[in-house]
Specification:
With 395 residues, the chain is α+β, with helices and mostly antiparallel strands. It is built from 13 helices and 19 strands. It binds 3-hydroxy-3-methylglutaryl-coenzyme A. Belongs to the thiolase-like superfamily. HMG-CoA synthase family.
């Protein structure tokens, strides 16, 4: 029996910052951002968006129009995030209500920096392997904040990827070939009382490269596969240059023609990340959608997936594309990205400083946000969510 990703969707807020504008405002050569880092734009969150609203928007794209039987077959909601909204209650419980899922569903939040989305997916694969008639909703959702005028500012972003895991999946089958590694490192972290990440930038890049090189060695030793078996490598992309740095370490193992093919597909896999920025847990899976929308791939192809989460943990595994995989992509990412509103640097800075604290009662509705699900207000330390279209009070 094949287990894998049955459907996938992506949501990002409808606001963006052009990084050439940011470079000029920060007195930096724009080529450093667009070529050196490899980022063109970044999504910006209004105060009415958070990891829960973004996950609900992405999740609703997968569930809209589905039958009651389908909805009731979802037994678990796995909420992967490093920008959760509560230290106790899981974001997944909010989703159960917001997405009208059944009560007899397991809900849990998972954290290990950007790696948690992959762990959630692996847990879902395991569950469905034992319960082939059931489905799991996996969401990987984050707001990436480093701070105004910090070195990491150019790599911020926000968004959520939602996936349905099932048996006989329509998008891609998992090949049960994961290799993984953990090591206690301080390359990037965010203490509980901080809103912005703390990062040792160069060290984090070195750690990412080392984890990928080690994972690849381990993978080929355990599986007997070679680089020639793969049609594409898909990467967690904190910024798009990182994927190039990783692949460059092993590309010499391919012959000349395949090097060109892998490079073309690497570029296809970074088209969306270049316009969105780092979305932490969902980044690898946004890269997958980007590859599938723009790459030279077809059903039956073997795709290598590299997940890295600071702190640090890495995992390399492969997916095999299924027939008609295009129909399992439930969002029109480029259309949504083109429809975003461009902010000036001043507008972005204003919104950045409005990041809401749960201790202050406040209304968060604003003129910018056009999303289906919004954080309407914070009252008595509670987040009050609304579905904007139906004007339905969710909580
Ligand atoms: P920086 O120090 O400002 O940049 O920070 P730099 O001086 O290293 O320059 C960056 C690149 O631009 C260099 O290229 C320069 O040569 C080039 P490289 O040598 O690396 O190939 N450059 C130019 N190119 C063209 N024209 C120019 C020009 N000037 C310079 N005029 C840094 C960069 C990425 C460190 C910073 O943005 C940062 O700290 N970002 C956040 C950390 C990060 O993303 N780390 C990635 C690995 S860790 C990871 O992926 C996990 C993560 O997602 C978190 C999680 O797991 O939760 C972050």
């Amino acid at each position: 029996m094949t287990v894998g990703i049955d459907a996938i969707s992506f949501f990002t807020p409808n606001l963006y910052l052009d990084l050439t504008d940011l470079a000029k405002a920060r007195g930096v050569d724009p080529n450093k951002f667009t070529i050196g880092i490899g980022q063109e734009k970044q999504s910006v969150v209004p105060p009415s968006q958070d990891s829960v609203t973004m996950a609900a928007s992405a999740g609703s794209m997968l569930l809209t129009g589905k039958s009651t039987d389908y909805i009731n077959s979802i037994s678990e909601i796995l909420f992967a995030s490093e920008s959760g909204i509560d230290n106790s209650k899981s974001g997944a419980v909010y989703l159960q209500t917001m997405l009208h899922l059944a009560k007899n569903v397991r809900t849990i939040e998972l954290k290990q920096a950007c790696y948690a989305g992959t762990f959630a997916l692996m847990t879902a694969f395991d569950y469905v392997s034992l319960h082939p008639n059931e489905r799991v909703l996996v969401v990987a959702t984050d707001v990436a904040r480093y701070g105004l005028k910090s070195a990491g500012e150019v790599t911020q972003g926000a968004g959520a990827v939602a996936m349905i895991v099932s048996s006989d999946p329509k998008l891609a089958g998992y090949n049960h070939d994961s290799v993984f590694q953990s090591q206690d490192l301080m390359d990037f972290w965010r203490p509980l009382d901080e809103t912005d990440a703390i990062v040792s930038g160069k060290f984090s890049q070195e750690a990412y490269e080392t984890f990928f090189a080690n994972a690849w060695q381990d993978y080929i030793r355990r599986t007997g596969r070679r680089i020639a078996d793969f049609k594409a490598f898909v990467f967690h992309l904190p910024f798009t240059k990182m994927g190039k740095k990783a692949l460059d370490q092993i590309i010499d193992q391919a012959d000349g023609q395949q090097q060109q093919n892998l490079e073309r597909n690497r570029l296809a896999g970074q088209i969306y990340g270049r316009q969105v920025g780092n979305i932490y847990t969902g980044s690898l899976y946004l890269s997958l959608i980007s590859l599938l929308d723009h790459g030279d791939v077809q059903a039956g192809d073997l795709i290598a997936m590299f997940s890295y989460g600071s702190g640090a943990e890495g995992e390399l595994y492969s997916l095999t594309l299924m027939e008609n995989y295009q129909q399992a992509i439930k969002s029109h990412v480029q259309k949504d990205l083109n429809a975003r509103q461009r902010l000036s640097v001043l507008e972005y800075e204003k919104l950045f400083k409005l990041f809401p604290k749960s201790s202050d009662d406040q209304s968060l509705m604003n003129e910018y946000d056009k999303s289906l699900f919004q954080l309407a207000e914070i009252k008595n330390h509670q987040r009050i969510y609304k579905a904007a279209v139906s004007k339905l009070l969710i909580k």
